[in-house]
Amino acid sequence: MSWRMAAAGVLSAGIVGALVVGLWLRGTEFASWLAGIAGSGVIITGLFGWALRGSAPAPEPTRDEVRESAQILAEAVDSQWTGEAANRHLFGATPLRVGWTAHAGSFLPARGTSEELDQLVVPFTAGAGRRLVIIGAAGAGKTCVAILMMLELLRRNGLPVPIFLSLSGWQPRREPYRTWLVRRIAEDHPSVDPAMARALFRAGLITPVLDGLDELPASERAAAFRQLNSCLGPADSLIITCRTREYERIIAEAEPLTAAAVVEIDAVAADDVIAYLAAAIPPRARQAWDAVLGDERAAAMAGALDRPLMLWLLRKTYLETARDPRELLDAVQAGPEVVHARLLDGLVTALYEPGGRSLWPEDQARSWFGFLARHLIRLGTHDLAWWQLHRALPRHCAPLALGAVAAATVLTTFMLAGVTTPMAWVNAAVIAEMFILGLEAELGGGTRDIEPMRVDLTMMGRVRLLAGRIAGRMLVATPIGACFTILAMVLFGPQEAVGIGLTFIVLSGVAIGVVDWAQRAFDAGGSASPRSAISADRTATLLVLFVGITTCAVATLVALWFGLVVDGSESRIASFPYVLSAAAALGFVFALVGRPRGLAFGPYRAWPLYVVSRWYLTLRGRCPARLGRFLGEAHELGVLRQVGGVYQFRHADLRDHLAAPEGSR
Q: Under a CB-based contact definition with an 8 Å cutoff, are residues 428 and 407 in contact?
């Protein structure tokens, strides 16, 4: 027996003992003790959940399971990033040629272009444990080159699976690289659990593609390089991107990455910019653009557009609109920074112009993007995850809102059952808050472990898992069942109390076990989108609600049997509305607020918390009521990009520009 289980047992025995003494000394008034019973059950369940969570580790996967997982992961990554590359126009009819220069002493050719990816891929895969650092200016196309290289690696059989991971949010001084890597792979690809992610890494079957070393705080970048040098083995391959200036500062403070080749993305040559524009100009704008390209200031304009990000912005703000391109010639006289700011500022105007593809007006879209950008900056991340939207709310706002929903649900159920005494109403509210407090305690006061879920009713190969889930949940339900047995013993007598307690344990174990078995973490890989994750988690929430209500119906029949059929005394008939309303209310609140793994095993459900957060922000004017649709459209338009199951602004410069106050842009 672990120390956790022993501690949980001692504390639970103390709580049950206190209940017995309290009932013996204070009497048997049902309404006065109902809240205490429910709350004590929550606390006891939390204690056993805490104990079980630190118990036996998951079994190590076999070699065949690891190979199969790598194949499934490769297919999901290929599907996701092929679609994302198409959304970024990396396969366009007029692709932009991006050149690169290798630093001296590397295993790469001295020079190459994005049209010659073999010159990067072949040397990179020629030996085990090779590493590549891709550097360049902001918006130079580092991420795009990394994505194209990923897709090329996936098309070559027998190579480790490249896994794209944003470095934003990693704290290398607090979290070791391997721990962070395993956690992120499991988060971005929930079909791969942490044990499998560790096995894939140890077997050398994955190549992490770490994007945005420069997005780490300045104080953490050198520590990240030190971590990588100390953690990577001789067979561990890696691709990492970073801005040039930040990279130079890092290697001045820390050692360069061991065994790594460094390739720097070149600025797009003025001739290539002019050629790209000439090929991309639509027929309706040919005359205006010919005049611009023939102007003596065209070379200076091309120099200001020497990065793929700027050329993409130019396409969206000028080539695909009726905007006069001569504005750029006037702006270039004030310097390249003015051109960049004009393009960044004009993106939302161009994409959300009246009569365009968008359903929302420009001013609202700009305001919402600004709020979301500032929210991400406050969090120190680039990842916009819908199940973490509650972090944009004031502290404790989401738990209080869900507590209000729970209290309203319990009160309504009591009223419908005809329980109208003031003390019953007070206790009903206390019951709801006990659930909220139990959840908060189980989370350590936070909601950071939330993840979207989906329903999987497949029986093939999962029968033993179902039996194990039911047995485990019966074990966790036993402490609460003991509390109800004590209460029933005082109210009804020992014979009925044992039946009521056992019935509660069996019903709770079966209901929670079935729902827990039927739900799986939503795999954000493949072609899945955040909107599909919202839909999947909503379906899972409704499943919990259905099972909760069904369980309450069965509990009501049991209450009828013990309260009316076994002994139809007047006192028991009078207590029946309390039993019925309490069972229904507790079941509904449990289904609404907690994950089916119970108060001991998981936090709030993602979808209800997301709905509460979205409506709060909508009422404050911070986001649209149809936020999922708005973000999905922004991804289609190119303002956002999808990385795993989250959105990011297309570029850090765009996020920072939208976050800035109106007058400072």
A: yes
